[in-house]
Design a protein that fits this description.
The structure holds 2 protein chains of 2 kinds. Helix content of chain A is 63%, strand content 11%. Chain B is an alpha/beta fold. Chain B folds into 2 domains: 30 residues; 148 residues, 3-Layer(aba) Sandwich (Glutaredoxin).
């Protein structure tokens, strides 16, 4: 019954989205305050409908209602509660429902938080947001209905892919979705601005918090996904340049560029056409990511619901949404007005360089992802593009980006003097060089890229520290600290976070690896540690049977800890997963993966990696997200101030919107 | 280029991209790649074995194994992510009594051994194709790739890309069954 209610609520929500789109866009065109206010209410009601639908499906998963086809296909009675819940979005239909729900939530957030925005802009944003939603409603309701029933309810479900039964993966898709879908809002802002024929600093101030929100979620989502790959796949690697990983990296690169170009719009009232284009393509890459995962166009481990028919639908959506947006862009971009000339050495000059490098990096990733497909489409054979390509193209772009990045926040607007900026950074440069040298000596060689990476990471961290010290230095540092804009502090922290991540990625180049077949009682050495296989015992899990090894780790004869890597055998569906054991001290990981038992000798294969600095990759991502959050707090304060200064306010929905423009 | 032309450029790029995707989706109905080797005997092969102490893997041996029942030749590598995805299906086939021969392409032997140690080893024999030369003989496009050999030692079917449940149920199992009888 609840399922039918959910289905009904979803259909109702789609009708509300239609009203939201029609009334919002039409009302803004006619400057009809009533219609525009109605669009806001429809956004809230639509969100209510989506939430009812979403929780109805979740209820079916929690209660294991196998009369629902989707639940039967992806769940199982014996599954722990967390994975019953994550099963809701661990499949195609449910994840599209989550997508729609998050889109509606973002629309509702604008309806609630945007009451101070110009009414026509707000109505147009809501209208376009709902217009995009409509496409996805059609997709779900017509081709991927999660509420379909089975005529005869089976007593047991088919289970969820065991690789996906993991806390990291329980939260990776929703976080990534919040990021992906969040970019739909910046897209809606861009189209609304094109419809209004107005892109100004105020617009940039409205759009930037939403760009930041989706950037934060994308950062966290990608980091969580990479962390999952690190500890679950048992390979000791953290990024494989898989097409689907790239699909999440591309919107992140575009969103990062957008965050920085929006600053130029805000501060210099310039770079408008480019910023609007970035906002459009950021969402375009988000949809492209969805398309690549689901269409089967590209082979990947993530391709969990490949189906050409669904792929065709998403392709159609991509064509309509992005094609429509770019057509509007082609027609209107010329009327947005360009900016003045920039001095090459200036804050805006550095931000433009940042955008150019990020855009080129984006194109290299796009080429690497799609090149095999194009080659095959033209009948030139099948190739795989792997890590060597990205090492040769992406990394060399990253290095100049990082070098300029540390200096960027120190450069004043309009005109600056390169020499004085370099002088301010001399301490940071010396410290970073020393750190790189020390690391190279300590590691006794290794690939040359590793110390270069250490230098880049330290250069960013010390550069951020220089920026902070310079900002608070003076007769009264405490007062200056209190007066420091949150956005500046956020930028310092986010830049230092990327520095941390780069340190981690560089440390990974010094990875040491060893594989041995050990019988209980035997030991193996690695990187100054001695690992002894104590015992291997069977363990019964809720829906799997595991072999769990106990490994004692010694350093200089002293026990510093034990690790318990295991292998889980699932019966439904039949599959074996490796549960790695990672012993970390925050600066290095000892990474253990248990292999098969040799039938003849009774020895177990034990694979061990020593990964120096690698934990910093994810620590740095958290710090980046934290910096984004701090910057976001500043925006809210600033918007509050703007409200006090702003013109008289009456009801939340002004009668004549034209008055507030 | 005029201002308008520049603003229309992203649209043109999108159109090209969508066209390519569309073509790919339409032809995607049958993603099976043709092979000139279909219905030909197993190509000449002589590869060192991955397992220390085993004799080299030759086409004669593959034919001898195939004479006892249809077998699969699977091209894999530890660095290949889709191989990981299809591996459980290979293990299933082994459990069902199907003989599998592995060609380990462009891989470090220790990595390949670790891969099999971690995921299970479904292969009766494994040849090391360190530089990909044998894969060229077999006409391999990329990893993973799977060939079905009949009892006469002829290649009957070739699957490019990872095996999934559909491929297993709809193509490989029926084909193996019909070849066995």
């Amino acid at each position: 019954m609840l399922i039918e209610l959910g289905h009904y609520a979803l259909i109702l929500a789609s009708v509300l989205a239609l009203l939201q789109a029609g009334f919002g866009l039409w009302g803004a065109e006619r400057r009809d305050g009533f219609l525009m206010a109605f669009s806001g209410s429809a956004a809230l009601a639509q969100t209510g409908g989506c939430l009812i639908a979403f929780f109805a499906l979740m209820h079916a998963y929690i209660t294991s209602d196998f009369s629902v086809q989707n639940v039967w296909q992806n769940s199982h009675v014996d599954k722990p509660l967390l994975y019953k819940i994550s099963g809701v979005w661990g499949n195609h239909e449910g994840s599209m429902l989550l997508w729609i729900t998050v889109m509606a939530l973002f629309g509702a957030a604008v309806a609630l938080a945007g009451s101070r925005m110009p009414a026509t802009l707000r109505a147009r944003v809501l209208g376009i947001q709902a217009l995009i939603s409509l496409g996805f409603y059609a997709f779900v309701l017509l081709t991927s209905n999660p509420f379909a029933r089975l005529v005869q309810a089976p007593i047991e479900g088919r289970g969820l892919n065991p690789l996906l039964q993991d806390p990291g993966l329980a939260f990776h898709p929703p976080l990534l979705y919040l990021g992906y879908v969040g970019t739909s809002l910046t897209f809606s802002f861009a189209l609304a601005a094109l419809l209004e024929r107005r892109v100004d600093p105020a617009w940039a101030r409205w759009v930037r918090p939403w760009a930041l929100v989706s950037w934060i979620f994308l950062t966290l989502g990608i980091a969580l996904g990479s962390w999952w790959a690190y500890y679950e796949l048992g390979w000791g690697g953290w990024w494989f340049w898989d097409p689907v990983e790239n699909a999440s990296l591309m919107p992140w690169l575009a969103a990062t560029a957008l965050l920085h170009s929006a600053i130029v719009v805000e501060k210099r009232d310039s770079l408008k056409r480019w910023t609007v284009l970035l906002a459009i393509i950021t969402f375009a890459f988000s949809i492209l990511g969805t398309f690549l995962v689901r269409s089967g166009v590209i082979t990947s481990v993530h391709a969990f619901a490949t189906d050409p028919e669904r792929g065709a639908f998403i392709l159609l959506l991509l064509a309509l949404i992005v094609g429509g947006a770019l057509t509007l862009y082609a027609l209107r971009a010329g009327s947005l007005g360009g900016g003045g000339l920039f001095a090459p050495i200036s804050r805006e000059g550095a931000l433009i360089l940042n955008n150019v490098l990020l855009a080129v990096a984006l194109v290299t990733v796009l080429l690497g992802t799609l090149y095999p497909m194009f080659l095959e489409a033209m009948g030139l054979g099948t190739v795989t593009v792997g890590t060597p390509y990205y090492k040769a193209t992406f990394v060399p772009l990253l290095i100049p980006l990082v070098l300029v990045m540390a200096a960027g926040p120190l450069i004043p607007w309009k005109r600056a003097d390169a020499f004085s900026i370099l002088m301010r950074l001399r301490v940071a440069a010396v410290l970073a060089l020393a750190a790189a040298g020390a690391a190279y000596a300590w590691a006794e060689g290794g690939p040359l890229l590793a110390p270069i990476g250490i230098f880049c990471g330290c250069w960013l961290i010390f550069g951020a520290a220089t920026d902070l010290v310079d900002r608070v230095r003076g007769p009264n540092p405490w007062a200056r600290w209190r007066g420091l804009p949150r956005s500046a502090l956020g930028a310092v922290i986010a830049h230092a976070g990327l520095g941390m991540s780069i340190l981690g990625m560089s440390g990974d180049l010094w990875q040491q690896e060893s594989i041995r077949a050990l019988s209980p009682g035997q030991s193996m050495p690695l990187a100054g540690f001695e690992l002894t296989l104590e015992k291997v015992e069977p363990v019964q899990g809720p829906n799997f049977i595991a072999e769990r090894a106990t490994v004692v780790i010694r350093r200089n004869g002293e026990i510093i800890g034990t690790a318990t890597p295991s292998r889980r055998k699932f019966t439904r569906p039949p599959m074996t997963t490796s549960e790695t054991a990672i012993r970390t001290n925050g600066l290095r990981d000892l990474y253990l993966a248990l292999g098969d038992r040799d039938g003849q000798t009774g020895a177990y294969a034990l694979r061990v990696y020593y990964n120096p600095l690698v934990p910093l990759i994810w620590g740095g991502a958290m710090v980046m997200a934290l910096g984004g959050g701090i910057s976001l707090a500043d925006r809210r304060l600033r918007l509050g101030v703007a409200q006090r200064i702003a013109a008289p306010k009456r009801a939340p929905a002004p009668k004549h919107a034209g008055a507030s423009v | 280029m005029s201002r308008w032309g520049l603003a229309a450029l992203p649209l043109l790029l999108l159109a090209g991209l969508l066209g390519a995707f569309g073509l790919r989706l339409l032809d995607g109905a049958d993603r099976a790649l043709p092979s000139t080797l279909i219905d030909r005997p197993v190509p000449a092969t002589a590869l060192p074995s991955l397992r220390a102490g085993d004799a080299p893997l030759t086409d004669a041996e593959i034919k001898a194994l195939a004479a006892q029942g249809p077998l699969l030749v699977n091209v894999f590598a530890s660095w290949c992510v889709p191989c990981r995805a299809e591996h459980p299906f290979l293990m299933d086939l082994k459990r069902e009594g199907v003989t599998l021969v592995g060609l380990n392409q462009r891989d470090k032997p220790e990595n390949a051994k670790a891969f099999l140690a971690a995921l299970g080893d479904p292969f009766a024999r494994i040849g090391v194709d360190a530089n990909g030369a044998a894969s060229l003989e077999w006409g391999v496009y990329g990893v993973p790739e799977t060939f079905v050999i009949d009892r006469a030692g002829k290649i009957r079917y070739r699957h490019v890309g990872a095996i999934d449940k559909d491929v297993l149920d709809k193509i490989l199992r029926p084909l193996l069954k019909s070849l066995a009888s």
